[in-house]
Design goal:
The chain contains 19 helices and 31 strands. The chain is of the alpha+beta class and 749 residues long. Strand 21, helix 13 and strand 22 form a beta-alpha-beta unit. The chain is globular and about 80 Å long. The chain starts with a helix and ends with a helix.
């Protein structure tokens, strides 16, 4: 760290990740790599080859005789587990903590659901033996279609996070009938699958009645609670360890079959058992984003002011466990319109449950909605930014409360200036460079700001060294670094004096990583703990420190300062607390400020693409995102988060889709050879600009979540740019070259 950096606030600085060297040198230990428990046996899961029915016979005799095999588990000999329970549990919290039995009966509820586990001395032996198992089924008729079965849709009791499925303000239907200008648009977004670099993986170790689980987890408390309920073990007897996570994106908010089966098998064998889902197994067994149909109805006056907004979302859901993304909820807060209607409907299918996937709700919802706004702007002959500005609300359109901060218009204006938006030709297919069609598009971004109940523990030893402990996880976002920055600044010590301990359920409980609440929840808990330990130090030191208040007691430059009196922190600690001190600090859950103010983060995305006139091939040329998300904790890691979200948006717009075989309920492109995600060659020039605006209503630090904001609206900006380039509007995502080519000939001749 340079001297100039030491002279200014550590918070906000673009400091390198303190765990970066461990990761690039291979010394960061991920779930499958822990060795402290000794040599583990390897488990391999065999999945069902039908989507619905019962196992009528299973012959595992050859597998049990295979070399190296230690144990074969099926529904016939699996340890007893509780019933799964209703599709919708009574409480929202139960979704994360309910028992999740595996191999508990002969039912098959989805394709590739586990029907057997083989445990052997090596992974290869377990996999080979699994192929020797012969299973017979009584197959039942299954349903997989969404679009042809919208008439069977039903209203869920709630959508994700307990939100209301419907909202209504004014008289939407009446306003729609009388509208001067009305659009009725239907979009479709496909199934998408989680593909973090690290798959779901577990090592389970029993010591008597105590279980230690090395897992790839976003929320340790969820994992512990689910395992406790499934295994019928007291939570305090289970320890979850997850110091490094190779990506989560919502896929690791709850444990999956690998964790349950590893724990069951390890208990039977009385030795450590490790299981990792293969990449192919993840598609059916580690959640996905459900396919959706979006009906968007927009009504406006000729000047562009919305008179009504209606948004209906139809989504596929598993029969045995309901999951409904809050896809239309963001629309309740984004633009002003006196008449409003949002509704969520579900169509049951015979698949595994959908799960949280980065920006649940906003990612697919804004992909459709912000394209609809682009279509409305063209219908009105208005600039897309101007349309959005004219519909900027003075207060939350549905809650009727003020926004804590709202910098969306400035995000759009700043982005337009930096991107050269004035050079955009609003007439589609009018800008050419040789055989390339050039287009620009933009979209707005919004995502709610949350904070979760979290506790941090801060300890200082006699030498002034600081240790921060919590069960928070770092899923690749830079949590170790921002926690160190906040602790170092609050205690006036260099970051080299701070040690951060994360990813162990023995540490104080936090909300974990997810929902973009991790940074705000964690760092504000650290601030609270630092405040508590500073008071302890002052009280232990006596006069003049004890009498100093928050304005006159300062910790800076490795010293404790009370008025004109100053002493080295290390010297002071050695004198007054040679055994060290520690304190806990807590924040959350969301309180009165969240009732009084509508809290969101905002952004605007700008994209330029080129489209080959002969092949329809789409190439990114450049992309800019302007982000307003409260106080920025680390400019470098924050930028990385937004860049990742932008990339995810490009993938959603142009390539990501999990293809379902509607005959068998099988995801056919279940690997990274055929499930396409953007790579470096797909991205081109990208930039991020932050409009920093600390939000005093959000929390003590004024920070907001931004990890998922970068996805919101990003795909729509890409799709809008493709339309501006070609004049071909694709409403069924992703926008692939075949769909562009279908309409391109009529446009360019």
């Amino acid at each position: 760290m340079t001297t100039s950096m030491q002279d200014q606030s550590l918070i906000g600085q673009p400091i390198d990740r303190i765990d970066g060297r461990l990761k690039v040198t291979g010394r960061a230990t991920y779930a499958y790599e822990h060795t402290e428990a000794g040599q583990a046996a390897h488990g391999y899961i065999l999945g069902a080859s039908v989507a619905k029915g019962r196992v009528t016979d299973i012959d595992d005799s050859a597998a049990r005789r295979a070399p190296g095999v230690l144990y074969v588990m099926t529904h016939r000999n699996a340890p007893a587990q509780p019933e799964f329970g209703p599709a919708v549990p009574p409480n929202v919290r139960d979704v994360f903590t309910r028992a999740r039995p595996v191999l508990a009966n002969d039912r098959v509820r989805y394709y590739d659901e586990p029907v057997a586990l083989v445990v052997a001395e090596t992974f290869e032996a377990a996999r080979a033996a699994a192929r020797l198992i012969r299973v017979r089924y009584d197959e039942e008729k299954a349903d997989f279609e969404l679009t042809s079965r919208l008439g069977q849709a039903y209203t869920p009791p709630r959508v994700n996070a307990g939100m209301a499925p419907d909202s209504a303000v004014g008289d939407f239907e009446g306003a729609f009938k009388q509208a001067a200008i009305a659009l009725d648009l239907t979009y479709a977004t496909p199934y998408q699958s989680h593909n973090p670099m690290e798959p779901q993986a577990t090592i389970a170790v029993w010591r008597g009645d105590d279980l230690t689980v090395y897992a790839s987890a976003q929320t340790l408390n969820n994992f512990r609670a689910t395992l406790a309920n499934t295994l019928r073990v007291a939570p305090e007897r289970i320890r979850i360890i997850s110091p490094y996570v190779g990506g989560g994106f919502g896929a690791k908010l709850i444990p999956h079959a690998d964790a349950i089966l590893a724990a069951l098998a390890a208990r039977v064998l009385q030795r450590p058992v490790k299981i990792a889902l293969t990449r192919q197994q993840m598609y059916a067994n580690a959640g996905y984003r459900a396919a959706m149909v979006h009906q968007l109805r927009l009504c406006a006056q000729p000047d562009g002011r919305l008179t009504a907004m209606g948004y209906d979302v139809y989504s596929a859901t598993s029969r045995f466990e309901e999951f409904c993304e809050q896809t239309a909820v963001f629309a309740r807060h984004l633009y002003a319109a006196p008449n409003r209607l949002t509704r969520h409907r579900l169509v049951p299918v015979d698949l595994n449950r959908g799960e949280w996937m980065r920006s649940p709700g906003e990612a697919p919802g804004m992909l459709a909605y912000e394209c609809g706004m682009d279509e409305l702007a063209e219908r009105l002959a208005l600039d897309p930014i101007e349309l959005r500005v004219r519909n900027e609300p003075a207060e939350d359109p549905e809650r009727g409360v003020p926004f804590s901060t709202r910098n969306l218009v400035e995000c759009m204006h700043t982005g337009a200036e930096r991107f050269g938006w004035k050079q955009r030709n609003p007439k589609p297919a009018s800008v050419r460079e040789g055989r390339k069609l050039i287009g620009m598009g933009m979209a707005a971004a919004i995502r709610p700001n949350y904070i979760g109940a979290s506790t941090a523990r801060v300890a200082i030893d006699a030498m002034g060294r600081v240790t921060v402990s919590m069960d928070m996880t770092d899923i690749g976002t830079g949590t170790y670094t921002i926690v160190s920055q906040v602790a170092a600044e609050n205690l006036g010590v260099p970051m080299s004096a701070v040690r951060v301990q994360l990813g162990d359920s023995r540490h104080p409980r936090t909300a974990g990583s997810g929902g973009s609440w991790g940074a705000a929840s964690t760092t504000n808990a650290v601030v609270a703990a630092c405040q508590a330990i500073k008071r302890q130090i002052a009280d232990a030191a006596g006069s003049p420190y004890r009498e100093a208040d928050g304005a006159t007691l300062r910790f800076a430059g490795g010293r404790v300062i009370a008025g004109s009196h100053s002493e080295s922190l290390a010297t002071l600690m050695a004198r007054v607390a040679p055994r060290g001190l520690q304190a806990d600090g807590s924040v959350g859950p969301m309180g009165e400020s969240y009732k009084a103010y509508s809290q969101h983060s905002y952004g605007a995305h700008f994209v330029e693409v080129e489209v080959d006139m002969d092949t329809g091939e789409i190439r990114m040329r450049r992309m800019l995102s302007v982000i307003s998300a409260g106080r920025i904790l680390n400019a470098k890691t924050a930028r990385s988060q937004i860049l990742g979200g932008m990339t995810w948006g490009i993938g959603a717009a142009l390539m990501e889709q999990t293809l379902l075989d509607a005959r068998h309920g099988h995801f056919v492109n279940h690997d990274l050879a055929e499930y396409l995600v953007p790579v470096n060659g797909d991205i081109a020039q990208m930039d991020v600009v932050f409009l920093e605006e600390p939000d005093e209503h959000a929390n003590a630090l004024g920070v907001k979540g931004l990890g998922e904001l970068g996805v919101c609206g990003a795909g729509a900006a890409v799709a809008n740019a493709v339309y501006n380039a070609t004049g071909v509007r694709v409403r069924e995502f992703p926008v692939t070259l075949d769909k562009v080519m279908a309409g391109l000939a009529a446009v360019v001749g």
